[in-house]
Amino acid sequence: AAGVIQSPRHLIKEKRETATLKCYPIPRHDTVYWYQQGPGQDPQFLISFYEKMQSDKGSIPDRFSAQQFSDYHSELNMSSLELGDSALYFCASSLYPPGTGNSPLHFGNGTRLTVT
Amino acid sequence: GENVEQHPSTLSVQEGDSAVIKCTYSDSASNYFPWYKQELGKRPQLIIDIRSNVGEKKDQRIAVTLNKTAKHFSLHITETQPEDSAVYFCAASTNFGNEKLTFGTGTRLTIIP
Hints:
The structure holds 2 protein chains of 2 kinds.
Chain A: E1 5-7, E2 10-13, E3 19-24, E4 31-37, E5 44-50, E6 53-57, E7 64-68, E8 74-78, E9 87-94, E10 106-107, E11 111-115
Parallel strand pairs in A: 2-11
Antiparallel strand pairs in A: 1-3, 3-8, 4-5, 4-9, 5-6, 7-8, 9-10, 9-11
Chain B: E1 4-7, E2 10-14, E3 19-25, E4 32-38, E5 45-51, E6 56-59, E7 62-67, E8 72-77, E9 86-92, E10 102-103, E11 107-112
Parallel strand pairs in B: 2-11
Antiparallel strand pairs in B: 1-3, 3-8, 4-5, 4-9, 6-7, 7-8, 9-10, 9-11
């Protein structure tokens, strides 16, 4: 079965650079969630989208922005990167709109961002 | 907002014995409680979940119990095997799961052969 696809798998950037992470949800899933997981930490919710509109926002820094496109893939844009942004970034998708269904989150394999 | 606490942070269990991980949550509106298993550098994988209208759920060697009054839920793994070694996260959300998850801090489970 198709899963959530994230690219790239690994990304190395220097401080103050920008990075773009991509997420392709499971086909027919139109809800996407982004999570950030620091070393030894639990995943922290960043932001979510449904039908190309932001549906919820968590602890996402102002330096980060995200959007969902017409094909439902999502991109997380990170600017002015800091050392503390080094983490695993997971995308998850869901079949139903937020708050309406019985739909467990399916996580992608993540993008490991290293800021040097 | 929701706050989920998880204990213990590390747990070592002899192979074949049982392991229990406990979580408490703060938001009485939470009604969906999944458990994820995460191996090093890999994605969290859902292993079992429970909704607030159910007190207990079992899937082979894995079971989860929920006490809504006390706002706590537990993961039970019986007949543990070396491949059960991983970090386990509990989580909570409202709207029966189709919302953002608030995760616990994780339990590193080590099965001793």
